[in-house]
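// run 5 | inverse folding | seed 20
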């Protein structure tokens, strides 16, 4: 009997592994089908479960905000596609919300296993994993929640915004950005790695180009362009 291949769970900075998936909206190839776009892939323990239902409604209601950021949503659980379809029908009929993003059918759990979404001691149900993938197919963020904790969709949206803003500005975002207690929505300039760079930071601060608490903690204004 042929042995199943062993995979190492991908990490931040890795390319998202290429895979063909069957969804409620048809076949997709990840990450190729979303080339040039960001996407958020999130797994849920099961259809027709209370916390998962509230999450799907929350994600759907937030979908226009994700779309503004050139970001698509994709769900996944170890279910067959007909279960997904029946569940989204139930949500529409009873909660008056139409789920329009695709949901991956992973009835054998192969995709979830490849992505490390199934805890080895907790049966076959997927945990609440989140992968944020950029337009080049690179994994930029991974989150994992237990069954009992519903995800904060506002935080996931904030994370996408922060990643895009950091890329665009070649800077970092502080804690709770864009509402940091110390620097508000300003961005953190990459720390100096040489004596020359440290001196340059001091000169930039004296010229008013950046603001510094010290040469290793400098900030600059947000550039939305």
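// decoded
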């Amino acid at each position: 009997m042929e042995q199943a291949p062993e995979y190492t769970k991908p990490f931040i900075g890795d390319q998202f592994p290429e895979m063909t998936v069957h969804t409620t909206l048809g076949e997709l190839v990840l990450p190729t089908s979303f080339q040039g776009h960001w996407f958020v892939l999130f797994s849920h323990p099961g259809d027709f479960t209370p916390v998962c239902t509230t999450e799907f409604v929350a994600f759907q209601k937030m979908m226009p905000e994700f779309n503004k950021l050139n970001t698509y949503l994709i769900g996944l659980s170890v279910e067959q596609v007909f279960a997904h379809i029946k569940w989204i029908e139930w949500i529409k009929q009873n909660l008056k919300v139409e789920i329009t993003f695709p949901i991956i059918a992973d009835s054998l759990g192969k995709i979830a296993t490849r992505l490390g979404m199934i805890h080895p001691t907790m049966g076959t149900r997927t945990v609440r994993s989140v992968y944020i993938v950029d337009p080049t197919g690179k994994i930029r963020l991974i989150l994992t929640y237990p069954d009992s904790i519903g995800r904060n969709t506002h935080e996931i949206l904030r994370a996408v915004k922060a990643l895009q803003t950091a890329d665009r500005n070649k800077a970092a975002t502080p804690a709770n950005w864009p509402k940091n207690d110390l620097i508000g929505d300003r961005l953190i300039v990459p720390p100096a790695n040489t004596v020359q760079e440290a001196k340059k930071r001091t000169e930039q601060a004296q010229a008013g180009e950046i603001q510094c608490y010290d040469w290793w903690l400098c900030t600059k204004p947000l550039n939305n362009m």
